[in-house]
Amino acid sequence: MKNVENAILSGCSTGGLASILHCDNFKALVPMVAKVKCFADAWYFINAKDISGAPHIEDFYYDVVKTHSEPTRQ
Prior knowledge:
36% of the residues lie in helices and 19% in strands.
């Protein structure tokens, strides 16, 4: 991948979430000048409390949004 110019990371279902969570790691594998796009295709998770009564999915997505809303360092 040392000569790649464009790279796409995608996934569906749980793989869609993984593609978003690991986009920065994926970008680190290619040259700085490469264009990298990551997207989730067809993911769905029920927003309900888990068996212990905790809002696991809600807390998890809060962390996803927080991670991708913070400014990146250049």
